[in-house]
Structure formats: structure tokens, C-alpha cells
Amino acid sequence: MKVLAFAASSSKKSINKKLVTYALSFLKDVEIELLDLNDYELPLFSVDKEKETGQPFLAQEFLRKIGESDALIISFAEHNRSYSVAYKNIFDWCSRIKPKVFQGKPMVLLSTSPGGRGGASVLATAETSAHFFAGKVKASLSISNFEDNFDLESNTLINIELQVQLERAVKSLL
User: Fold this and answer.
1) CATH number of 13's domain
2) 24 is in which domain, residue-wise?
3) What DSSP character marks residue 79?
4) What is the pLDDT, as a whole number, of residue 154?
5) 3-state DSSP assignment of residue 64
6) What is the Cα–Cα distance from 166 to 78, expressed in whole angstroms?
7) Residue 60 and residue 41: Cα distance in Å, rounded?
8) What's the pLDDT at 47?
9) What DSSP designation does 13 have?
10) What's residue 49's pLDDT?
11) What is the reported pLDDT for 64?
């Protein structure tokens, strides 16, 4: 089994990348690939840009990575109650190439933030829309107050209840 994971953020210090990386620690005897959206930086999507330049190689490559995986884990950063621009842009490019972006893959959707809602708005959006793009959501989890619940030195969740929920969510892919 191959699991593809990424944080839907371009921040070099992304707490969502810390969360998704930690989530992968619950998977044993599984091939794992962790992507960084910064490696897939694309021009801002527009139909005019698409007509002018065609469909970017990096978007095609991102879709290929999804296609080669058996399951996905995505941790969404929330920007103004929605997706980060970095994620929305690559998603828009990919959906023009292959409307069923998630290609029937089982998925675990995560989100975290420094605040009390833990990215709940963006996670709800991702959960609601995934099936339109051929994603099969097996589990989702929002973790609020990231700095209070995650030890940055050891890179682990210190809230045992959240740790159990995260482990259960990730193992739903197996």
C-alpha cells in the first residue's frame, strides 16, 4: 500500500505539515510519500492562462502522484475560513486536467490551527466537496489550539484523546 500525504499549505513552518507528518507515524509497513506544495508552485489559474500556456507539467505531475497512490492524507490550512491559495491554485489546475482529482482514493482529511476552531471551516468544505472530485473520505479530524496540543520539540501530540482519534482516523485507510 502507498499513502500520499501533504499539507495544503505553502508555509515553510506549516503546523499542518507537522500534523500530517506526525499522522504518518501511525502507519507501519506502508510506503509513504510526503509532498511539499512548494515543489508544485504554479502560475495563478485562469482560463486565459490555460489557453495561453496549456496545462502545466507540475499539475500533471501532482495528479500522477495521486494516481500512483492507494490512499491520501491531507491536512488543510485555513485562510479566511477557506483553502490556502497554494492548495486552491494547484487543485484548480488539476481539476481542469482531470475533474475527478482524487481518482477514487480513500482519504483522511485533517486540519489544525492556532485558534479554537482548528480549521473547522476549511475541513467542512473539504469534506463536503471531496466526493464531487472522486474522493472517498474515511475519516476527518480538526485539532484546535495546535500549540497547546502538540509538542514542537518532540513533534508529537500531547493530548492523548486527540492522539487516539488521529491514530484511529489514519488507520481507517488500512
Assistant:
1) 3.40.50.360
2) 2-171
3) B
4) 94
5) helix
6) 19
7) 12
8) 97
9) T
10) 97
11) 98
Q: pLDDT band at 13, cuts 50/70/90? A: very high
Domain count, the chain: 1
Q: Is 66 helix (H, G, I), strand (E, B) or coil?
A: helix
Name the β-bridge partners of 75. 7, 110
Q: Tell me how far CA of residue 64 lies from CA of 28, 71, 101, 124, 138, in angstroms.
A: 24, 13, 10, 26, 22
Kindly list the distances between the CA atom of residue 102 and the CA atoms of 39, 46, 66, 95, 150, in Å, as whole numbers in the listed order: 19, 21, 7, 9, 29
48-68 burial, b at 16+ Cβ within 10 Å, e below that, comes to: eebeeeeebeebeebbeebee
Residue 8: other Cβ atoms inside 10 A = 28
d(CA 106, CA 69): 10
Residue 20 and residue 11 in contact, taking contact as beta carbons nearer than 8 Å = no
The predicted structure's pLDDT at residue 132: 98
Q: What is the Cα–Cα distance from 53 to 76, expressed in whole angstroms?
A: 29
Q: What pLDDT is recorded for position 115?
A: 94
Sheet holding 2-8, edge to edge: 31-35, 2-8, 71-76, 106-112, 136-143
Burial of 5 from C-beta contacts in 10 A (0-12 / 13-18 / 19+): buried
Q: What is the pLDDT of residue 95?
A: 98
DSSP alpha helix (H) spans, 15-138: 15-24, 47-53, 57-68, 85-97, 120-130
pTM for the model: 0.97
